[in-house]
Specification:
Number of domains: 1
CATH architecture: Roll
Organism: Streptomyces luteosporeus
Mean pLDDT: 95
InterPro entries: NTF2-like_dom_sf (IPR032710), SnoaL-like (IPR037401)
Number of strands: 6
Order of helices and strands: HHEEHEEEEH
CATH class: Alpha Beta
Strand order of the largest sheet: 2-1-6-5-4-3
Distance between the termini: 49 Å
Radius of gyration: 15 Å
Protein name: Nuclear transport factor 2 family protein
Pfam family, one: SnoaL_2
Number of helices: 4
Shape: globular
CATH topology: Nuclear Transport Factor 2, Chain: A
Length: about 140
């Protein structure tokens, strides 16, 4: 299979954010390769939201843990930088804690795409700010 163009990689990543926005888990998982890596900062491990998950099952398990700690989350990807098989996304996320307090926090996502599927997504963010919100 030939590698995708930068515009095709960008379209795939944009589709992931649209599926996340629409809460369409099947469409969201469809963006990822069956053995994809889903990486979050180790600083979130105390909440069960850190480390590397593998495959669709690992991603689903991670996503199922999020509502245990977060009342809601809306992603706002603002800038996309494409370089070969990488798509870097800078954005904001509105995170609502379990007591209803919402804060806007920055994120950086690094996607790696191969053969039409995301094989890795790494979420980089200020874990201290995130944890403070969860504890408010």
């Amino acid at each position: 299979m030939s590698p995708l163009s930068s515009s095709e990689n960008l379209a795939l990543v944009r589709a992931a954010y649209a599926a996340h926005r629409d809460r369409d888990l099947d469409a969201f998982l469809g963006v990822f390769a069956p053995d994809a890596e889903w990486v979050h900062p180790d600083g979130m491990a105390d909440y069960g939201l850190g480390g590397t998950q593998r495959g669709h099952a690992g991603i689903k398990e991670f996503l199922a843990r999020v509502p245990q700690h977060v009342g809601g989350m809306v992603l706002d990807p603002q800038e996309f930088i494409v370089s070969g098989d990488r798509v870097v996304v800078l954005g904001l996320r509105d995170v609502t804690n379990k007591r209803g307090r919402t804060r806007t926090l920055k994120f950086l996502h690094v996607w790696t795409v191969r053969d039409g599927k995301a094989v890795r997504m790494e979420d980089v963010f200020d874990t201290v700010a995130f944890q403070r919100l969860l504890q408010e």
